[in-house]
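pipeline/complex-builder :: batch 7 item 3
reading input block
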Amino acid sequence: MSRRLIAASLSFGIDLVRHLRYFVVVADELHFGRAAARLHMAQPPLSQRIQRLERELGTRLFDRTSRQVALTPAGRDLLGPAHDVLEAVDRLVAQATTTARGTTGRLRVGVLPEVGAATLATVVRTVERRRPGLVVELAPATTVEQLRALTDRSLDLATVRLPVEHGALVVGPTLHQHLGVALPAGSPLARRRRVPVAGLDDLPLALCPRASAPGFHDELLAACAARGYVPAAVHHPGGTAGALALALAGTAATFVDEATARREPGVTWRPLDGEPLVARIAVVWPSARGGGPAVRAVADALAEALCRDAGTVAAGAMPPVVHVRPASGVLT
Amino acid sequence: MTATLAVDRDIARALGRAQVTGWLHVVDIDRGHDLALGADEPVALASVFKLPVLVALHRAADAGELDLTERLHLAAADRTPGVTGLAALHDDADLSLRDLAQLMITVSDNAAADAVLGRLGLAAVARTIDLLGLRHTAVEHSCRATHAALADDLRREGLSLARALADPAVLARLRVLDPASTNRSTPRDMTALLAAVWRDDAASPQACAAMRDVLRLQVWPHRLSSGFPGDDVLVAGKTGTLPPLRSEVGVVELPGGRRFAAAVFTRSHRASFSDPAADAAIGAAARLAVDHLAR
């Protein structure tokens, strides 16, 4: 760090880390009331602290009207670096805690990149509360990257989109995420309360790259086809943000859960008409390395946080519809 | 050597694209050279177990222990249920043992299979397996017993099979999918059994010819057969289905007379009863192997 930057960071008149945490939570919720509730504080002091942070940074982070809160372009630019700082601080604190206690209770946990920071924070807090001394290192990565990392032992647990080859895995808590469609606010489809999948017609589909979760990718396309939607083209932007960008631009349809869509200003989310499209997410770990109580605790904390914050429900909450054909019947 | 690696890779790709794990053995019946991919791994047979039952039935007939034209009365209420053949029919029926065997093979009729097995006895099937030297094969359960084990396990889990299919953790606990606790074999044992039928070694030449005829009448076009669409190719076989398991063992006879026994077993990563990609991958994998061996 240059001398000038050190001087700049020392010149802040506020607890920068604390204020950045307020910033990312408000950016996540885009609602001061909800953000304050999550931060266990009242709304007025939260608003004051965001204003204070804006003064210190010399730029407005949010546009506030009486009806809604939106990130300014500057706010959007600063959100990534804010997350970087907070992650670095978390790592530092985790390392210090471990060093101080002399414990090696550390689990490296893969998480899907589209899972929000707030959800992950809930996981960390829950684990801290239930198993003091156990340090959770979160690593955002795609399903395939996480499975590879389990194999080469750089992860202990993974959060993956099913289906995956599960021969060598213990499949822990499994969650279902109901998908809806993300639309630009002006889209004629957005006028409908529920959108039929077949109604997407000849719109191209934006979908995570096949290489990131081939099982999920193919299953989703098959489910679309079964509902009468065969996209004219399939775009593979990197990540959920890219897919939402194409949806916002009106150049492609994309399927996301409601919680993810709500985090993106300008996106209108509509549930699907007819048989639901369901994404399945599971916490898995290698059967060879066993799942001790620490692994179970983290898996449960992940599942609970995803259920609460990411619009998922525990698997089994919905009965599947099955018409068995002779050629696929049991014992044919 | 390089060619073998290339075909192995192509087969692995075909299976991977269909999202299945596969175990296969394909062998040239007359020359003996073969292609193996997990060929000695234990696999659950599902309905493929009806093939050793067919062979045991014909050996029993050869030995004069029963007459293939002997008629059995199958009351509708006592029949093993299923989705094809007598198992799906409504009324009482009287059929000869060989016609029941034909339904058992051609449409995988569970009621017919259990009737044949009931007349024959599991011990006779075990003797046939032993005499033919199939050291990794065991047939210990009827269709009814397999259904019951599945129903027991699902009751314990409190789930329907459709629900269980979506939950890999539950699937891992189902006994009917675990080779150790259900009818089992290996791809190599199954090609050995087929080769014996095609070489007239499994029973008398007349019995082997009858078995080949029946196996060529199997109705399913979606697995092995899908890999060999030419009108000049003969495909005979027996499928096995117990989602997520799908398999077929059979013989492919090419124009010019070369014959290959193929046993392809798959386990799908998808949670659905209908899985056309997995079905087709069985044909695609066998085709790649046969093309390689037939060069």
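note: Residues 3-80 of chain A form a domain with the Arc Repressor Mutant, subunit A fold (CATH 1.10.10.10).
queue -> next item
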